[in-house]
Amino acid sequence: xxxxxxxxxxxxxxxxxxxxxxxxxxxxxxxxxxxxxxxxxxxxxxxxxxxxxxxxxxxxxxxxxxxxxxxxxxxxxxxxxxxxxxxxxxxxxxxxxxxxxxxxxxxxxxxxxxxxxxxxxxxxxxxxxxxxxxxxxxxxxxxxxxxxxxxxxxxxxxxxxxxxxxxxxxxxxxxxxxxxxxxxxxxxxxxxxxxxxxxxxxxxxxxxxxxxxxxxxxxxxxxxxxxxxxxxxxxxxxxxxxxxxxxxxxxxxxxxxxxxxxxxxxxxxxxxxxxxxxxxxxxxxxxxxxxxxxxxxxxxxxxxxxxxxxxxxxxxxxxx
Length: 320
What we know:
Elements (H helix, E strand, L loop, with lengths): L13 E4 L6 H31 L6 H29 L4 E3 H34 L4 H4 L2 H26 L9 E2 L6 H6 L6 H34 L4 H30 L5 H25 L2 H24 L1
Parallel strand pairs: 1-3
Antiparallel strand pairs: 1-2
Helix pairs in contact: 1-2, 1-9, 2-3, 2-9, 3-5, 3-7, 3-8, 5-7, 8-9
Keywords: Cell membrane, G-protein coupled receptor, Membrane, Olfaction, Receptor, Sensory transduction, Transducer, Transmembrane, Transmembrane helix
InterPro entries: GPCR_Rhodpsn (IPR000276), GPCR_Rhodpsn_7TM (IPR017452), Olfact_rcpt (IPR000725)
Membrane topology: Multi-pass membrane protein
């Protein structure tokens, strides 16, 4: 990638994460908001994984995928939130070159893995509704493990390529990244490299990642809608749609925020930051709520766990 400057990335030892351009007084409020949201992410996703692992009735493909979704949400939000909260109190707001590489690599890995996992979940719902008699045989444990492993592998390969491409750019201008974490577009803004080849490769890479997942999700739901509309009873249609509504809500929030961020012109960086908040923190916070509030099995499993805890506490209090 042709350079237009004399310095290259090897001479950059750190970057400055500008974050949100607000007054210092508002930094305290933002810190408290981030802290509250991150606490809810930890509580919700760790709780969801615990419920799924401890309740035998949730030992199904759908909940296997959901458990991995909670793991991904927990991990990639943890890549972003702690550093952002530290920077609200930091004067320098710096992040080392290695730290920036690591943050971008891990975030890219898990956000791409989530896209593929959501496609796998759409396929699972398609089999469950359109071919219920063949569900057990088609959605075998072996296939579920392959789909999840494939999601992580695709995320890893994509992240290696994306991170390598970004950090082969030359940063010969400002070290200030106008964002609250290391992301591709803010890093591109401070590069002085020729972007033609970079953007061609980046567009190709994005196409082979985003298009297949969206196509799988859309085709799955077209078949699902077609099948559900053939159900004569309104109760049956409602029950079938309820099994998909949570997944569809998660897909809409994630892809809506991603598209909004990457379609926002560079001259509106603050809008990009707000959109980034949606899929780095808001989506991981909402996913456990969406699935738990709209899912009878999860609510029943939660009641069992809480019931056991209450009984144990009562027995301890009685003994003492």
